Amino acid sequence: MTVLEQPGSSRRKGELPGPPPAWHPRVAPAPLLPDAEPHRVLGTDAARQLDAALLKRLYVQLVRGRRYNTQATALTRQGRLAVYPSSTGQEACQVAAALALQERDWLFPSYRDTLAAVARGLDPVEALTLLRGDWHTGYDPRACRIAPLCTPLATQLPHAVGLAHAARLKGDDVVALALVGDGGTSEGDFHEALNFAAVWQAPVVFLVQNNGFAISVPLAKQTAAPSLAHKAVGYGMPGRLVDGNDAPAVHGVLTEAVRRAREGGGPTLVEAITYRVEAHTNADDATRYRTADEVETWQAHDPIALMERELTARGLLTDDFAAETRDGAEEMAADLRERMHQDPPLDPDDLFTHVYAERTSQLRQQSDQLRAELAAAAATDEPAQEARP
Amino acid sequence: MTVLEQPGSSRRKGELPGPPPAWHPRVAPAPLLPDAEPHRVLGTDAARQLDAALLKRLYVQLVRGRRYNTQATALTRQGRLAVYPSSTGQEACQVAAALALQERDWLFPSYRDTLAAVARGLDPVEALTLLRGDWHTGYDPRACRIAPLCTPLATQLPHAVGLAHAARLKGDDVVALALVGDGGTSEGDFHEALNFAAVWQAPVVFLVQNNGFAISVPLAKQTAAPSLAHKAVGYGMPGRLVDGNDAPAVHGVLTEAVRRAREGGGPTLVEAITYRVEAHTNADDATRYRTADEVETWQAHDPIALMERELTARGLLTDDFAAETRDGAEEMAADLRERMHQDPPLDPDDLFTHVYAERTSQLRQQSDQLRAELAAAAATDEPAQEARP
Amino acid sequence: MTPTAATARKPATMAQALTRALRDALAEDPTVHVMGEDVGTLGGVFRVTDGLTAEFGEDRCTDTPLAEAGILGTAVGMAMYGLRPVVEMQFDAFAYPAFEQLVSHVAKMRNRTRGALPMPLTIRIPYGGGIGGVEHHSDASEAYYLATPGLQVVTPATVEDAYGLLRAAIASDDPVVFLEPKRLYWSKADWSPEAPGEVPPLGRAAVRRRGADATLITYGPSLPVCLEAAEAARAEGWDLEVVDLRSLMPFDDETVCASVRCTGRAVVVHESSGFGGPGGEIAARITERCFHHLEAPVLRVAGFDIPYPPPMLERHHLPGVDRILDTVARLQWESDWTEGRGV
Amino acid sequence: MTPTAATARKPATMAQALTRALRDALAEDPTVHVMGEDVGTLGGVFRVTDGLTAEFGEDRCTDTPLAEAGILGTAVGMAMYGLRPVVEMQFDAFAYPAFEQLVSHVAKMRNRTRGALPMPLTIRIPYGGGIGGVEHHSDASEAYYLATPGLQVVTPATVEDAYGLLRAAIASDDPVVFLEPKRLYWSKADWSPEAPGEVPPLGRAAVRRRGADATLITYGPSLPVCLEAAEAARAEGWDLEVVDLRSLMPFDDETVCASVRCTGRAVVVHESSGFGGPGGEIAARITERCFHHLEAPVLRVAGFDIPYPPPMLERHHLPGVDRILDTVARLQWESDWTEGRGV
Ligand SMILES: Cc1ncc(C[n+]2csc(CCOP(=O)(O)OP(=O)(O)O)c2C)c(N)n1
Ligand SMILES: Cc1ncc(C[n+]2csc(CCOP(=O)(O)OP(=O)(O)O)c2C)c(N)n1
Ligand SMILES: [Mg+2]
Ligand SMILES: [Mg+2]
């Protein structure tokens, strides 16, 4: 780097009327500035610092999570899900995000993060309504403190900031944790959300799951930054870089960030490096843009395998525990399979119910029209009015 | 900062299948990563490194620029300009931006940057059409390589990136320099433009004129970052911090950034710390949000005064040169005043001329309608059709 | 109520009535939060939020960073937590960066969650031309909001309505795009904040002038122009009715159709461009409902199909009295009227 | 031209015709650049850009970072330098982040600079429903673009038009929002890339079926539905004409009015919500121009005024044959028809 001049070498030193005043914050300065070196790669030793119970909980959720992913993918083949963006390979991030939160905290998932919601305790069937083609949000976000799965990338991040800010205004010590992908960091909403969070010192944690791809576009076409965690610097918040396949490490970083947020320390940006083992969704063909070799390399760094090695090393992976874990996951999958094979009850009139708190006269007319059409179709014993594309 | 674990302390070292592959750029890596310490405050000694001719050119433009600002402000009081956002106090940035460019380069001004355009050689009357209420762009942007003055904040930044990228694709060594304010850095378009520029290694330079305010909002409510130049880190481009009232320093930093861009070194983000001495525009009342003291402090750091001290120290500010400079500025102002007092020719039919390359049948009808209305009004000797608010 | 000293009506501007509405809403409901660019210390570029930060503190009336999507996006999150944000967009065209948040979240959140997450947001947007504003400062952008199910679109044209409709918008459990006709900010009427008038329900048009021959249907900035046109028309022997829609969505078919069924002729007047603008919708739905009452097609007076022109030419673009009367004259008053003026 | 072996028409899909149009444009004009999310290596999520990067290189068909405003904004800059960018937005709702660039720059740049900076951009947007897409993947967003002077809005409904109109759009010196009806991507017709048919001028509607009793006016995804409805109507004794608009702006008043003047009755059919949608504009302008030829008001069959519904319910929302025929039946065929079905 060419430095035209070093700071302090001005001969005008002392003549200047002090540092330019506008440069000084005119309100109390933000309590946090980024560290001189704003990021750390966290290694994989975190597991040995966690207590056994938590470690086992993480493991149980990872195994269930993997099973959930394979089951959901199977459901797409059976026509029971319209589409499924798998988080296979990313279970450590999903599970750690869920477990790092207290019950009163909020999770802001993207469309890929149904598993995080499920690991938080949401009924998998409710988590999947959007993806099965039923109503967009199958659960009450306020009841479970999980925002709707967000499809337009990065647009949920300002929501998380606003909610966390509102909670603080109300005096509640609630933290919001928002998930976003590497691709999503390129959107303007990412930038605006992080900036608002830092200016407001909102209790929010941003977790970037950097799985290397945005559909087919690799990270190198997404950013020239040394890491996505480096982006924290430009907002004046701490950035953390973590091995996203190491569940205890992700859990540790997130727990620390959540704690800091809860204590008034403001937002943190966490980048977890992981890998999307499956295609973007079942509709995608990943062979068009990456090699089988690459996938295999990553499978050797599988979050469940890593965890099992760790548990074994600590003598925690007994046969009983392993079997119990497996059985629990199978049970969940069987239940999910069975319930997803039942058609959900559908009422076409619901189309008009929640557009506004009360139906407008226009919507009442349209609802009457649809009702009449359906009645006429039923009377003539023909199938109901259908689009014929 | 709490570091849960230091990098490299993992006992798995060697077991991991190498660093995660997706983490390695899949295409050739960007040639530039930010410096370990990404920003420098440049002092004010740059003047002594410039040759006398350039120093004098800068000075002449500063004095003209100030005169232009006061003249334009006067024109608002005379009802000859609809509105004027003054750059008084920011002339060093404006002038240095203009002079750092080659003729083939492009300037992307914001609505406050008419002076930069004028310092580049644009006729002040043409620069002011937008602000006088006449057609939005009074000049041919391709002929003078100055993009239209951009009002929606930061939206011109992606244009600069696209143009610079297009030039490089065509094999032209053209650089684009885009101006934006401190407030504008909060917009999503700022983020997206810088990211595209870095990923594409586009020959573009972003100059943030940090004048401490976005209308009434001080910097501290705009960002929590240690500096706006720090934002460069998150895009993988160099960031520079410079005293924005020191014309030689700004010129030096920009010239270096332009050179780097031209040579294929990619984009640079420059933050120039300056101050908006006047209100936001003539319509604004700055006393509502800042003290007279603050303004005075900054006036003591006036770019013209700084420059005069420098020129005097180098023995360049002769009485003749000073008088000549003053006279040139007065002449420009007199000419501007006189020509702005003439009403520009207006043809209402122009409303329809450039909506599309060819008028649609709808626009032909509307043009006929207006023509008929105007003829009828003229026939009855009444004033033409007017909105009566 | 008989006016007392305290409730005596004095001249007040629309801007003052809006300020009062915000103030009263903040005072009555602790969940109301005002936010936007320059709304705090400065009181907004139109001074509509003047004094609110001083009275209620920075947490209730907040200067945000300069990013419209961020403003609206964080407001969505605040609403998710139970607050009632009132967002100011500084000018019409500067609401566009927030378009995605508006269309994909504000308008859809209640529906998406089957009622679990209502969006009681008010988005105040100064809109329209006639103030000599340079480009991006004069857009009549209501067509975008009208085409977005889930939003309510409201615009006052009188001082009293400015207060009442804004109170109603803030009180509504659904999002309201509240369009403030900026050239009426300084319009005056006798009005007292102590007796502000009833808070009208959203979705009700008002007949501002009774007339028998034809109906002018309008809203916001064009109401005064239509009233002036109706006055001028009287001199030419026409008796025009004037309907102020006040709320574009919900749309008051009843009031509008009742008027047109009586007069048999209608002209829709608005500033925004004709093609794809609100007038098409209004004319079409009147025609669907009142076809056999119509003596002539419903005609439109609208801005031309052009980007908003520079101040020096805007008077040619904006619907004015003469253009309205010319259009009224085309409503086939002679019984031997024949078609064929071509396409 | 008589078909030879090379020009023989074989079944081709609309997606293939679009790909071919891009390919031919890239080959013929070195200033054409294709850009967007996943358009390179992957060939786009609908494979419309398949093979282009392989044939023309990454500089001519470029995978961009994931940021729609950035994509369109950089494309504006490229156009300022003389290039002719063809931008892909991945889905209808994901074009909204680029709304400000579209409205404030793409649509206005030529006008702002009095012709000095034309914007020969094509913005391809897969739109509409009927493919079982989850929310944000099925919006019919044309109303937003129609209300924006400076834009052209074009949408093909046939394989041949997909090629011809896309070529015309790319060749146009003005910006075109090119709406691709995504559920017709896989529709097939006999068509040969070697004899692709003439490149039609933008702004011309096509009469797809002649009929005497009433005109169905439609475009894009609803054309096949209207043709099917016309077929079904024949069984009930109605002879329907079907007009495919192809270009919503410029609007072909001539063809539309000529048809309606003959039939005296018209129904406008589209997927996007009725209120504030294109149908209002179309119905209003027909009525303005053909009032005395109309036996009945112009009616509309449109999506309901609701956010796009989930896949399991979308069939109730989309205009279908029965709903179109029901509406045709309401065109006052009996001479003793009286009004009064209420508002
Ligand atoms: C605003 C917006 N643009 C485009 C899309 C289409 N899209 C869906 S997923 C995706 C890639 C997302 O990549 P990333 O953020 O890395 O998340 P990942 O899929 O890897 O979890 C794209 C482009 C979208 N959902 N939203
Ligand atoms: C997108 C957008 N939002 C809001 C505005 C209104 N506005 C005009 S200037 C301004 C402040 C700009 O501050 P800054 O970027 O620091 O530039 P400065 O005025 O200090 O030169 C605002 C909010 C705008 N022009 N564009
Ligand atoms: Mg990804
Ligand atoms: Mg500023």
TrEMBL record, chains A, B:
Q: Which gene encodes it?
A: pdhA
Q: Which InterPro entries match?
A: Alpha-ketoacid_DH_E1_comp, DH_E1, PdhA/BkdA, THDP-binding
Spell out the protein name for this chain.
Pyruvate dehydrogenase (Acetyl-transferring) E1 component subunit alpha
Instruction: Fetch the Pfam families from UniProt.
Output: E1_dh (PF00676)
Q: Which domain of life is it from?
A: Bacteria
Q: Where is the composition biased (Low complexity)?
A: 372-382
User: Does the keyword Oxidoreductase feature in the UniProt annotation?
Assistant: yes
List, for all copies, the residue spans of the domain called Dehydrogenase E1 component: 71-344
Going by the UniProt record, its keywords in alphabetical order are:
Oxidoreductase, Pyruvate, Thiamine pyrophosphate
Organism, per UniProt? Answer: Streptomyces catenulae
Region Disordered: what ranges?
A: 1-36, 364-389
Cofactors per UniProt? Answer: thiamine diphosphate
From TrEMBL, chains C, D:
The keyword Phosphoprotein appears for this protein? no
Query: Per its UniProt record, what InterPro entries does this chain match?
Result: THDP-binding, Transketo_C/PFOR_II, Transketolase-like_Pyr-bd, Transketolase_C
> What GO molecular function annotations does the UniProt record carry, in alphabetical order?
oxidoreductase activity
Q: Which cofactor(s) does the record list?
A: thiamine diphosphate
Domain called Transketolase-like pyrimidine-binding: residue spans: 12-187
Q: What is its EC number?
A: 1.2.4.4
Which Pfam family name is an example for this entry? Transketolase_C
EC class of the enzyme, as a word? oxidoreductase
Q: What is this protein called?
A: 3-methyl-2-oxobutanoate dehydrogenase (2-methylpropanoyl-transferring)
Q: Which organism is it from?
A: Streptomyces catenulae
- Specify the taxonomic lineage: Bacteria, Bacillati, Actinomycetota, Actinomycetes, Kitasatosporales
